[in-house]
Amino acid sequence: MEGTISSADYATTMGKRLLVPATVFQRSKGNPFKSNRRSYPIYFGYSYQIQDMVTLALPEGFRVESVPESRPEVYSDAFRYQNSATRIPEGLQMKRFMMVDGFIFDKGTYPAIKHFYESVLGGDSEQAVLQRTELAK
Question: Count of H helices and E strands in the chain?
Fold first, then answer.
């Protein structure tokens, strides 16, 4: 699917800078696995994968100051996550991939699943920084 979206409040203003979330569609609601221990198997309703690629056109008068470092791929047999933001001539290109391949996991896999979701939460909370150019004053 392809489309164009405009949003007046997508970024956070900090003086002459805009903080732009590196994920557009996948705003994390927190780690669903907060406990340190698990008594029962982990159940997901279904296997799934999500792949987003978003090109962000810069607002007039702004340039890319910094982008989050690409996170190394977090991978196991059943879980995969990768997130990156890259400068391109038009602005920023942000890519995110997440996969859960399975729906019932033994409680012994809980520490690895918890760590996976902590990595996803960290990657999804990264931000790019745009800076107002002198010409835009």
Answer: 1, 10
pTM for this model (two decimals): 0.83
Check if the beta carbon of residue 29 is closer than 8 Å to that of residue 110: no
User: How many residues are given for the chain?
Assistant: 137
- Check: CB of residue 91 under 8 Å from CB of residue 58: yes
Give the three-state DSSP class for 122: helix
Domain boundaries, the chain: 41-58+68-125
Measured CA to CA, the distance from residue 97 to residue 81 in angstroms comes to 5
* Strand stretches in 26-126, DSSP E: 42-43, 48-57, 62-66, 74-75, 79-88, 91-100, 104-105
Q: Which of 63, 85, 84 has its CA nearest to residue 131?
A: 63
Backbone φ and ψ of 77, nearest 5°? -60, -35
Tens-place pLDDT, residues 61-93: 999 999 998 877 777 889 999 999 999 988 999
